[in-house]
Amino acid sequence: MRTSSNPAFRNLPTSPGGYARFGAAPAGMAGAGGMFGGGGSPMPTAAADDRPLTVDDVVQKTALNAVLAIAVGIASAVVGLGFIGIIGGFVVGLVLALIIIFKQSTNKALVLGYSLAEGVALGSLTGLLESSSSQYAGIGFQAILGVLGVFIGMLVVYKTGAIRVTPRLTKMVIGAAIGVLILMVANLLISFFVDGGLGLRSGGPLAIIFSLVCIGIGAFMLLLDFDQADQAVKAGVPARFAWYLAFGFMTTLVWLYIEILQLLSYFRQ
């Protein structure tokens, strides 16, 4: 399999139990697998955790985590957890993410815990932003629609082959993501000594351009994630790794939500 920009998708093991075609769904189930292509196929008879992975496994687990994050996020915004929810959510999410990545854990409790923690953090952040001024009212809903739009758009791009995922493209996206992360850290550190730092989050023209670049990189990371999930299904990865793949998708979706929320806040100003 190709190397992904998403660390959660690297070095996935394969199973000897044959190959599961990306887009194949259990007989009689149209499901979300239809949007990836392919027709129905019988459910493997192996044990649930050891049978080859199918697209339905990935879609269902990813959807479950996304819905959980949104539901918890809405609740956190309504309750108004503020900075406690933001800091606590991101810290817990980071710890769980590191555990999942380094142990390549398929424990659904850890993955759902990550989505829950990120939901608390993002919901608290959105609630704090919306409550600070009436000009930010409804910005969270717009950000969710933006993420959904990017997700669907990149899925169409991937399925139509408009942009082919090649090793060269993968290296370019990874390099761009690393570069952006370095700039973010540098901007944060410099902001402690110089007001506004490098101006990457000041709300000005440079900040808008930077956010657009980050969203573009996030979109291409999503494209690479689709391809990596495709390769995992074709390689016959055990079904339990659907949770691991769902976690990988969630990290990209969190990235996109934060950047789209940031961009929308600039326009609202």
From TrEMBL:
In terms of superkingdom, the source organism counts as Bacteria
Pfam families listed in its UniProt record: BaxI_1 (PF12811)
According to the record, the segments passing through the membrane are 69-102, 109-129, 135-157, 169-194, 206-226, 238-258
Q: Which InterPro entries match?
A: BaxI_1-like
Q: Which organism is it from?
A: Actinomycetospora chibensis
Q: Does the keyword Transit peptide apply?
A: no
Q: Which residues form the signal peptide?
A: none
What is the name of this protein? Bax inhibitor-1/YccA family protein
Keywords recorded for this protein, A-Z: Membrane, Transmembrane, Transmembrane helix
